[in-house]
Hints:
Layout: E1 6-9, H1 17-26, E2 30-33, H2 36-44, E3 50-54, H3 60-71, H4 74-77, E4 80-85, H5 93-102, E5 105-108, H6 113-133, H7 137-141, H8 151-163, E6 170-173, H9 180-189, E7 198-202, H10 211-216, H11 233-236, E8 241-245, H12 252-264, E9 266-267, E10 276-277, E11 281-286, H13 290-295, H14 301-307, E12 310-313, H15 323-338, E13 345-346, H16 348-356, H17 362-376, E14 381-382, H18 401-419, H19 424-431, H20 435-444
Parallel strand pairs: 1-2, 1-3, 3-4, 4-5, 6-11, 6-12, 7-8, 8-11, 13-14
Antiparallel strand pairs: 9-10
Helix pairs in contact: 2-3, 15-17, 18-19, 19-20
Pfam families: AAA_lid_14, Sigma54_activat, VpsR
GO molecular function: ATP binding
Keywords: ATP-binding, Nucleotide-binding, Transcription, Transcription regulation
Amino acid sequence: MESINVLYLALRPEADNAVSSLTQAMGPNVHVTSDTAEARKLLNNGKFHVGLIQFEPFDENFLRRIVGDIFYYPEGSSLQWVALVSSLSMENEVVCRLIAEYFYDYHTLPFDIDRLKVTLGHASGMAGVRKKVFPRTSEWFNKSELIGSSPAMMRVVHSIDKVLSYDLPVLITGESGTGKELAALAIHNHSPRSDGPFVAVNCAALPSNLIQSELFGYEKGAFTGANQRKLGLIEKAGGGTLFLDEAGELPLDLQANLLRFLQQKTIYRVGGHEEIAVDVRIISATHVDLEEAVRKGRFREDLYYRLNVLRVAMPPLRERGYDIELLAEYFLNSFKKENACKARQFNRRALKVMRHYNWPGNVRELKNRVERALVMCDDTHIAPADLGLEEYSPQPLTLSLKAVKDQAEKDILYRVLAQAGDSVVAAAQILGVSHVTLYRLIKKHDIKLQK
């Protein structure tokens, strides 16, 4: 236990018996603070194995600072956290949801040092496993425009982390408004091609009679109005990345031309006869089910396999938990920097409604509603009506912490097995458990191995 370094965050540590008991038991391995900003700076040092947060006395503003200063950033969200909480606070929706979203485990007061040390030991072990599964996440994530620390978003970060160094086509899937272009930009900016151009084209927005000349360029005199040679977007992206947004909307005849380019790495300009070599990486994105489009003959199967070499799936906003609040605060603060407005923050009802709303338009809709609210709000606090959500009635919270812990266990099993290529031997070594234990967990969660 002496080797476990703990960051302890409490609202009033000087009046906290738990703090004195823990520091007496663990000595210099515990660093205590009440300042969330200081805690974030300490996390940057990377020396802590586990974080411990005291929820008593309950203070919602303190919890909001924890989310904004700690869980907003990968250094905080990747640490394994344990909550110290009373039975009474466990009946509070805010506390329960926060624990379900961000904590490895919780310790019910009154304080029991022996029981807590066991919990901290397990959390430290899980922290070691996560470092093996997510070895380099924070090195680039802080520099990107991607925001969030939910398990769903961490899966995206892990997927992007895997594809950064491989100069292969990437297909990004997800509903409209989930941030597919930001993911593509993150891949480009932190890849070996980062010094080259990033050229984005919305395939759905280009007229079908122009898309070929836009992508491949044209020679002078190729058609009426072609008074001079024009380079296409593929050539302009040379040495860098071409991002094909809404690639599922490409017409079939152009799909054949794109396939030829992917196979031979050369193009012909419209009206030209010279074969031109172009060095470019293709990242494509779609909200369309391309497998279904292939089955229905709307998308070429051979092109699908050329584009879908590496894959990143963007989650819908409704699956991202407290990321909704983080994103809302980010959009609010960004707008206030550029515009004068009366509103300063969201009231409690607005935050609750945003957490429960289904967000069919995803992050794009959230940004739209927040900016509209900042313009229309006549108060210092944004209410549901300002967001256009006054008629939405959230359903009662029905959280089971056992179900949440089971889901977290299932998620880590999927990640480790994927890393190990579905090898039970290798996965058991990573997790530090026996083959028998791992097979039992695989059976418990009904996980189907690929081999």
